[in-house]
């Protein structure tokens, strides 16, 4: 067996040949145990190989693997819509399924275009929506995703995200202490945007994409790949108001923030905002490929039958995994655990900030936490970030980076992580910082 025949297009963060997973751990062939604080990029929220989900997959595979939805209706898919109805906010009561996050994003935009008869979409700086051509055109988190793929689909317009730590207005007007208090503040604590970011959306609608041409605004309620940024609640509330004013549809991309990641089933629950279309994937089926969008029935009915779909979505085994994932999450109070462990993690990291000034910002919601590294001048410190990740990996703690400058470490453990495991990870991180910072 050789990696020689795997495409080099997959950049790999670690040279680990993984053999199995259990809970928050991955094991290699030699039996070395790694704390997987990457969750396969925010997917294994119920932990690796949760016994109940494994059983549901096995049982479904023995009954029916593929029940093509354009041909027949598999009972498991109906069971899945019933389960989703219990966690999605009303009036989002009708579902479309596909396989990956990017496919679901494409579906959301195609629905928005047909339903409104409009062509354009507004996205945000730092956003990540996937790597198919349209999703890539809507992705602004790094040029490396676009380099040599141009031209990309047109009709995409970009506004700034409400990133308080880097906001030009907030930076000018506030003291460091005020900015720190606002940055990453929990929206429920009354975080308020200075108004710059929503104002820029209004400006786009005046100067570049007229409301009559704008089908949707798509936003990650907590920015993921772009740097794990928790916006003030008023930013998302303003976007809702702008959409209502102009008949534009609001799409929340909860591919990464969904399924307990931020301490609620969906991040939208923190902000008091319901979108017109909700996009989900990643944690939905605990690692089986499945994604979906939810919208109100009346909107879905504007989507021309047969004008969108695919051979596989929803795979029935994936649907079985998703049904059991939702049940396990409810019965084991997994979102609640994510909220508690996230608070513990944030507190531990903020305590380290006092000793390590290179930890420029610590922010997050639930178990979606970021540490942003800066040099003595306050500039992004990619080299230090890379060293810290390496030193943690040498101690068997796996962490990924994000952000355009690759100077942010993202903390996304499986949501079954325990208090002791968070303490162990903090201990490893502190030792790594001690060595290099
Ligand atoms: C917010 C968000 N949207 C969409 C995607 C794309 O999902 P996929 O990689 O499954 O296509 C991702 C992936 O990281 C994501 O974080």
Description:
This protein has 437 residues and is of the alpha/beta class. It has 2 domains: 17-46 and 334-436, Aspartate Aminotransferase, domain 1, CATH 3.90.1150.10; 53-331, Type I PLP-dependent aspartate aminotransferase-like (Major domain) (Aspartate Aminotransferase, domain 2), CATH 3.40.640. It is built from 15 helices and 15 strands. The strands form 3 sheets. The protein has a 7-stranded mixed beta sheet, with helices on both faces. A 4-stranded mixed beta sheet has the order 1-2-3-13. Strands 11-12-15-14 form a 4-stranded antiparallel beta sheet. α2 (51-63) packs antiparallel against α12 (316-331), α13 (334-355) runs parallel beside α15 (419-436) and α14 (382-394) crosses α15. Mean pLDDT is 94; it is low at 183-189. The chain binds pyridoxal-5'-phosphate. Residues 41, 100-102, 105, 128-130, 220, 224-225, 253, 255-256, 281 line the site of pyridoxal-5'-phosphate (PLP).
The tally of structural domains comes to 2
Radius of gyration based on Cα positions: 21 Å
- Uncertain runs with pLDDT below 50, 5 residues or more? 183-189
User: Quick one: overall form?
Assistant: globular
SSE topology string: EEEHHHEHEHEHHHEHEHEEHHHEEHEEEH
Heterogens: pyridoxal-5'-phosphate
Helices, by number, come to: 15
Q: Please give the share of residues in helix.
A: 25-40%
End-to-end distance: 39 Å
Question: What's the CATH first level of the largest domain?
Answer: Alpha Beta
| CATH fold name of the largest domain | Aspartate Aminotransferase, domain 2
Write out the CATH superfamily name of the largest domain: Type I PLP-dependent aspartate aminotransferase-like (Major domain)
Give the name of the CATH architecture of the largest domain.
Answer: 3-Layer(aba) Sandwich
């Amino acid at each position: 067996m050789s990696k020689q025949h795997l495409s080099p297009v997959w950049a790999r963060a670690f040279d680990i040949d993984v053999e199995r997973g259990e809970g928050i751990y991955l094991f290699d062939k030699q039996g070395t145990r790694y704390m997987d604080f990457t969750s396969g990029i925010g997917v294994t929220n119920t932990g690796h190989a949760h016994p109940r989900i494994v059983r549901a997959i096995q049982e479904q595979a023995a009954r029916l693997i593929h029940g093509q939805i354009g041909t027949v209706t598999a009972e498991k898919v109906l069971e899945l819509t019933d389960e989703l109805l219990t966690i999605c906010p009303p009036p989002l009561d009708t579902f479309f399924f596909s396989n990956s996050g990017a496919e679901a994003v494409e579906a959301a935009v195609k629905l928005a275009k047909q339903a409104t008869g409009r062509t354009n979409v507004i996205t945000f700086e730092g956003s990540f929506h996937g790597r198919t051509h349209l999703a890539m055109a809507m992705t602004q988190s790094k040029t490396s995703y676009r380099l040599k793929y141009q031209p990309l689909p047109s009709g995409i317009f970009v506004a700034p995200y409400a990133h308080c730590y880097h906001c030009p207005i907030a930076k000018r007007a506030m003291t460091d202490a005020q900015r720190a208090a606002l940055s990453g503040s929990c929206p429920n604590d009354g975080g308020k945007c200075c108004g710059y970011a929503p104002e820029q959306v209004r400006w786009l609608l005046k100067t570049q994409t007229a409301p009559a041409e704008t089908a949707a605004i798509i936003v990650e309620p907590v920015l993921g790949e772009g740097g794990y940024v928790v916006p003030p609640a008023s930013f998302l509330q303003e976007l809702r108001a702008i959409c209502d004013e102009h008949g534009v549809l609001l799409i929340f991309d909860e591919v990464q923030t969904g399924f307990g990641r931020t301490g609620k089933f969906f991040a939208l629950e923190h902000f008091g905002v319901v979108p017109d279309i909700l996009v989900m994937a990643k944690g939905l089926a605990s690692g089986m490929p499945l994604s979906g969008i939810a919208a109100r029935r009346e909107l879905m009915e504007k989507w021309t039958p047969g004008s969108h779909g695919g051979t596989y979505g929803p795979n029935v085994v994936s649907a079985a995994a998703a049904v059991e994932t939702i049940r396990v999450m409810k019965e084991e109070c997994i979102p609640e655990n994510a909220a508690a462990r996230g608070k513990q993690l944030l507190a531990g990291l903020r305590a380290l900030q006092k000793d390590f000034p290179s930890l420029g910002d610590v922010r997050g919601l639930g178990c979606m936490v970021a540490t942003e590294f800066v040099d003595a001048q306050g500039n992004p410190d990619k080299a230090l970030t890379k060293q810290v990740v390496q030193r943690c990996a040498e101690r068997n703690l796996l962490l990924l980076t994000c952000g355009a400058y690759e100077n942010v470490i993202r903390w996304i453990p499986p949501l079954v992580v325990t208090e002791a495991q968070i303490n162990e990870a903090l201990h490893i991180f502190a030792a790594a910082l001690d060595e290099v910072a």
